[in-house]
Write a structure and sequence with these properties.
Elements: E1 10-11, H1 20-28, E2 33-38, E3 46-49, E4 56-62, H2 67-73, H3 78-95, H4 111-126, H5 134-148, H6 155-161, E5 164-168, E6 174-178
Parallel strand pairs: 1-2, 2-4
Antiparallel strand pairs: 3-4, 5-6
Length: 179
């Protein structure tokens, strides 16, 4: 907050470790998501409720290696990391769905590293992928959770997302009903 002038809406915890106290603290600070857990199959966020408050937070798992894993854990050089990113983005394209990638600040002082991130982003964008922030994804999942439990959402969010309920009639015809 003091460095960027922006209030954080989520975190990627060190060593991807967190507990109930972490969740409660994040909710009490009005954060929306926790970005963690490498998941190689598909991004399926989960909703985590605080044990001492009534708030919720979205757990957003990563599905591809982040730059820290590529450069520090796998010890790849810049070219090896670029090749791995391209390979993993190929998986993303084949499997379809919602996927996420995180960039560590550990290497942000390296021009080669920043160029690697820029090229990876250009490659993904060129593939026709839709980009969204983790905050927007978390907001959508929290709204989805409310709607699944028949809770109301405010009119601004209803106008933004325009949720509908899909109903299959006895005649087998699929209909949409505004929520």
């Amino acid at each position: 907050d003091q460095i960027t002038g922006q209030t954080p809406s989520g975190v990627h915890p060190p060593e991807e470790r967190f507990n109930d106290e972490t969740i409660s603290s994040m909710i009490n600070n009005k954060m929306k998501y926790l970005f963690t857990q490498l998941s190689y199959d598909r991004l399926v966020p989960s909703i985590r409720r605080s044990v001492d408050t009534r708030g919720e937070i979205v757990i957003l798992p990563r599905t591809t290696s982040d730059d820290f894993r590529l450069l520090s854990v796998l010890n790849l050089d810049e070219n090896g990391a670029k090749e791995r990113i391209q390979s993993e983005m190929g998986w993303v394209k084949q499997l379809t769905g919602l996927y996420s990638y995180s960039f560590s600040s550990h290497f942000s002082d390296s021009d080669e590293h920043l160029q690697m991130i820029a090229q990876a982003s250009k490659d993904v964008k060129a593939s026709g992928a839709y980009f969204q922030t983790a905050e927007e994804i978390a907001s959508w999942w929290l709204i989805r959770e409310k709607l699944l439990h028949d809770k109301s959402i405010d009119s601004d969010l209803a106008n933004k997302y325009q949720p509908v309920r899909l109903i299959v009639g006895t005649d087998g015809v699929l209909r949409q009903e505004k929520m």
